[in-house]
Amino acid sequence: MKSLWLPxxxxxxxxxxxxxxxxxxxxxxxxxxxxxxxxxxxxxxxxSKKAQVMGLEGLFLKTPxxxxxxxxxxxxxxxxxxxxxxxxxxxxxxxx
Length: 96
What we know:
By secondary structure, this protein is mostly helical. It is built from 5 helices and no strands.
């Protein structure tokens, strides 16, 4: 049996998304770009693109120093975002 709430929930999700899309189009996709690349520097974005085109080994062989900076920046960013922050939030919300 179909839920009677499903169409209501689908419409409740659609209208904020349409408003966001209209806003995003007015600023040429800047909002989506910001949310997709939150916490990344321009250097990290450029190196990511180079890594996709050249491969990691080719990137390392071309510019070892830049590759090490790129790796360390991603390592630090991802460690904070995916390890330290969730542990801190879990400790904060556990009430201990």
